[in-house]
Amino acid sequence: MARIESFEMPEFLKRSEMKLYIDGRSIAAKSGKTFETRNPATGELLAKIAEADESDVDIAVKSARKAFDGPWRTMKPIERQKILLNLANIMDARYSELATLDTLELGAPLSKTVLGKNRAAALLRYYAGQIPLVRGDTLSNSAPGDVISHTLKEPIGVVAAINPWNGPAGMSVWKAGPVLASGCTMIMKPSEETSLSALLFAEMCSEAGVPDGVINVVTGHGAAGAALSNHPDVDKIAFTGSTGVGVKIMQAAATSMKRVSVELGGKSPNIVFADANLDKAVPAAARAVFANSGQICSAGTRLFVQSEIYDEFMEKLVAHTKTLIVGDPLDSDTHFGPVVSKLQLDKIMGYIEGAKNSSAKLLAGGHRMTSNGFENGNFVEPTIFGDVEDDMVIAREEIFGPVLSALRFDTIEEVIERANNTNFGLASAVWTRDLATAHRMSRGIRAGSVWINCYQMLDPNVPFGGYKMSGFGRESGPHHIDDYLETKAVWIDLD
Ligand code: NAP
Ligand code: MG
To answer: Is 34 helix (H, G, I), strand (E, B) or coil?
Structure first.
């Protein structure tokens, strides 16, 4: 065991209570209620967190509205840019504080969460770079007389950002980038499982010079998210989470015609052709599904392997999986930590037990880990089922845990059809050395990302999002900021 030597409990956790962050200040929930957050590796209590209800959400929305109506939205581009760049510099200097809070609450290894620093800083610099590029058009028209027309781009207004628990700090940054770049304001609702880094991130925004009320955080349960999505003075909801809650959000948004973007779940196919480079494809197939203990929306949970290499591939994959270390998130040798909560653990074990009673073959893992220091944590072995059929539950539903379903296929036409035979369409990957196969697959798959000979590539300049029940809207990329802007047509009759 090589426990990360420099580890110290963060200063942030020494506060007696974690409060809401509204209008640039920490304030208790009006009801005085709190909820607990615990370390999923040990079961230890980490903190008590203010539990927002409708009345707190209303205060936060008023604060965001006041900030939106203030000087923020008319601030010169170069001033807003400076603030985003300050925030990027703070990420460079202090991201490890956010990463530590995520490790303690989520259970992801510290050696992995700290790697989020580069992406966080790069995202903020990317959105800073987009600020001066926001522009309308001068458009010709055929109106009689001498009439000119042009468009103005204006920030949409108050945004509710509702987040899941599987990558909390990175998610806060991803949501804040386009909000700050466009001149919108935001109320963020982190998951009740992982609230801490969002609260610290909001304080870092203030330190960077973000005006009070522009970034607010309300912590609490789903009810706080529902209060936000029902609030008449919220203009847009940027939701990342499960498809079930995404549907509720869209229904709630309809009454006041809020703009909505929804990044939802997935059951992504990872497709290996017989000509693939197996030395790359085998470890990548394991990372694709086991990274973050399987708690990644774009995880490659359906592994399709061409029949002629199926046995060889699975043998190598199982051998590789046995070398992966599940353990203490503070140990630098650990590859994967626990899953986030007892609830999630029970859900995952339910899927595993169900599959054990089917004709699928258990090839690796399949158990909860309950001895040698794992007693009080939510640890699950990396699990592989072989000979899975398309209609089995583990081939259809998002498990959100370290469980891989492997399926055989023969032809390209067949695998396109089977890969698309799902309600989801978030991501996919294809392993082949054949150019034609790579292009045909990337055209044939109905998903927001197709990774060829790689997995889980993300970049601030490349859009990410879903087809079908995986949602709509694209985060990152040159057009993301458009989701935060309205287009106004201006007509001027010169006669
Ligand atoms: P979730 O249960 O849908 O929760 C997401 C957020 O919505 C949480 O903050 C939750 O609060 C809140 N919420 C719950 N009920 C609500 C309601 N009725 N109205 C408004 N908000 C409500 O998802 P999760 O379990 O946290 O996260 C896992 C899911 O997120 C997976 O399905 C995963 O695929 C998806 N995900 C997608 C992406 C992507 O980019 N496509 C990225 C990451 C995760 P509480 O936590 O307090 O209940
Ligand atoms: Mg927890």
So the answer is: strand
Q: Which two tokens stand for residue 286?
A: 């394991």
Q: What SS3 state is found at 272?
A: strand
Q: Which residues line ligand 1 at a C-beta cut-off of 6 Å?
A: 162-166, 189, 191-193, 221-222, 225-226, 229, 240-242, 245, 248-249, 263-266, 297, 398, 400, 426, 466
Quickly tell me which residue has 């082949």 as its tokens. Answer: 432
- At 190-249, the pLDDT tens digits run 999 999 999 999 999 999 999 999 999 999 999 999 999 999 999 999 999 999 999 999
Q: What is d(CA 73, CA 37) in angstroms, rounded to the nearest whole number? A: 36
Q: Which residues pair with 270 in a beta bridge?
A: 303, 429
Domain range 269-459, its CATH number among 3.30.300.20, 3.60.15.10, 3.40.309.10, 3.75.10.10: 3.40.309.10
Going 246 to 248 to 250 to 252, the CA torsion angle's sign is: negative
Q: What is the mean pLDDT of residues 400-411?
A: 98
Instruction: Say how far apart CA 389 and CA 405 lie, in whole Å.
Output: 9
Q: Tokens representing 48?
A: 């008590």
How many Å apart are CA 253 and CA 368, to the nearest integer? 40
